[in-house]
Amino acid sequence: xxxxxxxxxxxxxxxxxxxxxxxxxxxxxxxxxxxxxxxxxxxxxxxxxxxxxxxxxxxxxxxxxxxxxxxxxxxxxxxxxxxxxxxxxxxxxxxxxxxxxxxxxxxxxxxxxxxxxxxxxxxxxxxxxxxxxxxxxxxxxxxxxxxxxxxxxxxxxxxxxxxxxxxxxxxxxxxxxxxxxxxxxxxxxxxxxxxxxxxxxxxxxxxxxxxxxxxxxxxxxxxxxxxxxxxxxxxxxxxxxxxxxxxxxxxxxxxxxxxxxxxxxxxxxxxxxxxxxxxxxxxxxxxxxxxxxxxxxxxxxxxxxxxxxxxxxxxxxxxxxxxxxxxxxxxxxxxxxxxxxxxxxxxxxxxxxxxxxxxxx
Amino acid sequence: xxxxxxxxxxxxxxxxxxxxxxxxxxxxxxxxxxxxxxxxxxxxxxxxxxxxxxxxxxxxxxxxxxxxxxxxxxxxxxxxxxxxxxxxxxxxxxxxxxxxxxxxxxxxxxxxxxxxxxxxxxxxxxxxxxxxxxxxxxxxxxxxxxxxxxxxxxxxxxxxxxxxxxxxxxxxxxxxxxxxxxxxxxxxxxxxxxxxxxxxxxxxxxxxxxxxxxxxxxxxxxxxxxxxxxxxxxxxxxxxxxxxxxxxxxxxxxxxxxxxxxxxxxxxxxxxxxxxxxxxxxxxxxxxxxxxxxxxxxxxxxxxxxxxxxxxxxxxxxxxxxxxxxxxxxxxxxxxxxxxxxxxxxxxxxxxxxxxxxxxx
Lengths: 361, 361
Fold this sequence. Notes:
Two copies of one chain form a homodimer.
Chain A: E1 2-3, H1 5-18, H2 23-38, H3 49-58, E2 68-73, E3 76-80, H4 86-104, E4 106-114, H5 121-129, E5 133-138, E6 142-145, E7 154-155, E8 158-163, E9 170-175, H6 181-190, E10 199-200, E11 206-207, H7 210-222, E12 231-233, H8 244-260, E13 277-284, H9 292-307, H10 322-334, E14 336-337, H11 340-353
Parallel strand pairs in A: 3-4, 6-12
Antiparallel strand pairs in A: 1-14, 2-3, 4-13, 5-8, 5-13, 6-7, 8-9, 10-11, 10-12
């Protein structure tokens, strides 16, 4: 079923306000979830609402706390999210470094004491709107098994990168491991086998049963102190021969730039004691290097050449962003896709908080 | 066979001086090659000398040209390598942004009109020596086939990242594609089959014959205007089910940050007309975010936990940098490993330029 963007936004604004967020914060949080649903990233859209609500009830997320800037240099900022939603602190940080990068050319931010921050691409989009190139990173709960290991330790650690191009920006936005946990859930829901080297058990044997994989991930990500067996593989799959240690390297780079640099929890430690995520954002001004219109034209020409390369008959070559921006156009027109479970949760939350739920079609 | 570090360095300094480089530039170039051989990255060590010499003879590399800074902001610098060796321009750029990052917290450099710059890790090591965290990127000749494509277009595009840790830094340094061309060459020399999903032909069929793979790469990388069939795969291998589009995404990010931002050639265009590579370097000051000793201790503790995770019996878990620093200790003591062909080339170049060749043992 679908609901209209405007109705989704209104509902979310009302819910977040009832949950104790300021009007301004509620608008922003609503925008991040609507944006994810519009771009077809349902795993990070309104279906997360019940989960956020649970963390607010448990006190993991503190809606009244204000994120604050702890320290600044001309090109750097350290932000304390103060245990409120990651989106609020990361927007504050990104807006701050956008200002800075317009003077110095480049700026970075690290956010500590944070929570889930939605899609990483939301912040690279903020940079693009300001005419800048952006990178955004986050650590997560532990889901990912390093090369040769039999237990999860690394986060699925998202990486987003946006660069100006036509008819839409280059937008790379996703987990650094082979697939996100959300993609495994989708297969489990549909009763489909996992089609690639996605997950392993505690003996590092490949798991193709999606429900079994989902159980493994749930244990890895949410059970404190228990023996963890298996998890998601790094990019490169199950075999060292396919360089899965490069996938591990990419994941470790993000662990260092988030949990370590923020002096917060690394992904492995977010299951016990204090639950905190950390984020890293970088923006720079492409206009320093050349005429922005020329850079955009050159990027577009390169991406078009990639799309038009000779290819396997019947297949298409997609460039990062193509899928999201195609879905964006459809979803803006027809409304965003919501599954039954998410709609049911919207109704329950609406009833409890006396917020009217949008019509679906 | 092995030759001692000091003898290798002296030989290279003499050769570069005879080839027309200044004494200072010769010392620096020698250091970059010795450093690669010491860290066990032979593909980027003295065995490249004959290749550099050929490019100097052809006029692709111009030893007397000076790299220069074109433009600066407090956090950014644009450098013109002026068609000299990439190492010279990138050291200039990296030293400049190290200075800047000590004031602003972070700085980036883009280098245009450049050539091969050796190992990307050399520049992140420079940053580490100055107490900073560094990232270095370069594009290359076209070797890599995007998802679903049947022809090479992307570079093998190196990515290096260094972060302070004990007993040695975290050092991720390698091609973003599944394996470097050099690794395929090593298998061809030894007459071994390729053990993983490394290369495909013009029908995107997996190639396991190393010599056939080497021919495919040579055609892709060095033949102008000819139909290109096949090449190296992106990280993720031959199948979309294993998310090889994420590997393509990583490669494209580097194309955008190097060739596009520098307004130079993208990897695909380095085979025709002007042959130029472009580089990107970023450094930031971790001391802004926290006590450097604490950050180093935390990074070390995390990496040690990764090394000690439960694992497949008989296998080890290596963290990026472990291999290189283990080889470094051995090679500093015993001398660097040189194969017969490289030693033969050293003798030929020595004879021609009247430079005495080090003894091997």
